[in-house]
Amino acid sequence: MNTATLSLPAPAKLNLFLHVTGQRDDGYHTLQTLFQFLDYGDTLHFSSRSDGKIALLSNLPGVDAEDNLIVRAARLLKEASGTPLGADIKLDKVLPMGGGIGGGSSDAATTLLGLNHLWQTGLSIDQLAELGIRLGADVPVFVRGHAAWAEGVGEQLTPVELEEPWFLVVAPDCPVSTAEIFSDERLTRNSSPITLAAFVAGGGRNDCLPVVTTRYTEIRNTLILLNKYCEAKMTGTGSCLFGAFPNEREADKVRARLPATLRSFVARGCNVSPLHRELQKQA
Ligand SMILES: C[C@@](CO)(OP(=O)(O)O)[C@H](O)COP(=O)(O)OP(=O)(O)OC[C@H]1O[C@@H](n2ccc(N)nc2=O)[C@H](O)[C@@H]1O
Ligand SMILES: Nc1ncnc2c1ncn2[C@@H]1O[C@H](COP(=O)(O)OP(=O)(O)O)[C@@H](O)[C@H]1O
C-alpha cells in the first residue's frame, strides 16, 4: 500500500520581541514581532497511502488525533488539492508543548509542505500559507521558511536577514495557553509600533511577559535565574525563555550551570528554516 516515504524536520521558532499594538473587532490582537528559526525541533515521517486514509501513528499525550494540527493540516491539503491519496504519519516529538516555540504550528507547516511534495499536489507556497493561516497564526511563517518581521496577527510577513547567534532555550515545566494570556485584562494592548532598525539598536520587548510572570511563579523564578547569566527574554506567550550567545561554547557553559531538573537546549538561530533546506535537497 505504501508508495513513497519522506522524513522532514519541524523546527522551533523564537519571537525575538513581541509588541501587542491593538485588538481587532474579532478579538484577535495585532502584533509586531520578529521570527527566527532554530536548528532544533520535531521530525515527521510521511508514507503515502493509496487508500486515501490519513493516519497519525504517534500518540501526543493530551491531544486527540483529530485535534492534532498534523492531521488537520493533512486533511486540509487533501481537501484543497482533491488528491485521492492518503498518508501514514509518524511524529518524533522533541519540542515542549505550549512553550511559545511553535511546535504545533511547525508540525502543521511541515505536514503541508511534506505532503504537497509526496502527493505531488503542486500547490504554491502562497496557497500553502493561505491554508496554514486557517490552522493557526504562526503557521504561515513556517510555511514560507524565512526569518521574518511580522505584523497583522502575524501573517503579514517581510523576510529579513538577521545575525544568527546561538541560543540557550530554557523550558519551565509549565505550559502556557496563548488564548489565556491574550484574554488577560492586564495585557498591554497599545504598544507603539517600532522599526527593525530600532529593534537592532536594542529596542523591543515582550508585552506578554508581565502577564505571564504574574500568573506563573515558576516562569518568573526561571527568568530571574537566567538573567544572572545573560539578557533573558521570553518567546511568544511563553513559557520558554532564551538568551543569545556568540558561539555554542558560551551557551553550553551557561546551560551547564542551570539545575539539571530544568529542561533546556542549545541551538543555532537560522534565517532559512531547516525544513526548507531539507526540501531543497529532495528537489
Ligand atoms: C502570539 C504568538 C506569537 O508567536 O504566540 P505563541 O503561541 O507562539 O506563544 C502566536 O502568534 C500565537 O499564534 P497561535 O499559537 O497559532 O495562536 P492561535 O491558535 O491562532 O490563537 C489562540 C488564541 O489566542 C488569541 N490570539 C492569538 C493570536 C493573536 N494575534 N491574537 C489573539 O488574540 C485568540 O484568542 C486565539 O483564539
Ligand atoms: N502536533 C502538535 N504539537 C504540539 N501541540 C499540538 C499539536 N497539535 C495540536 N496541538 C495543541 O496545540 C497547543 C499549543 O502547542 P504548541 O505549538 O506546542 O505551543 P505554542 O503555540 O505555545 O508554541 C498544544 O498544547 C496542543 O493542545
TrEMBL record:
Is ATP-binding one of the keywords?
yes
**Which InterPro entries does the record match to this protein?**
GHMP_kinase_C_dom, GHMP_kinase_C_sf, GHMP_kinase_N_dom, IspE, Ribosomal_Su5_D2-typ_SF, Ribsml_uS5_D2-typ_fold_subgr
Secretion signal span: none
User: Domain GHMP kinase N-terminal: where?
Assistant: 68-145
Q: Which Pfam families match?
A: GHMP_kinases_C, GHMP_kinases_N
The active site of this protein is located at 13, 138
Q: What is the top EC class of this enzyme, as a single word?
A: transferase
Functional pathway = Isoprenoid biosynthesis; isopentenyl diphosphate biosynthesis via DXP pathway; isopentenyl diphosphate from 1-deoxy-D-xylulose 5-phosphate: step 3/6
Please give a single GO biological process term from the UniProt record: isopentenyl diphosphate biosynthetic process, methylerythritol 4-phosphate pathway
Belongs to which family? Belongs to the GHMP kinase family. IspE subfamily.
Name this protein carries in UniProt: 4-diphosphocytidyl-2-C-methyl-D-erythritol kinase
The species is Halopseudomonas aestusnigri
Q: What is the lineage of its organism?
A: Bacteria, Pseudomonadati, Pseudomonadota, Gammaproteobacteria, Pseudomonadales
The gene name reads ispE
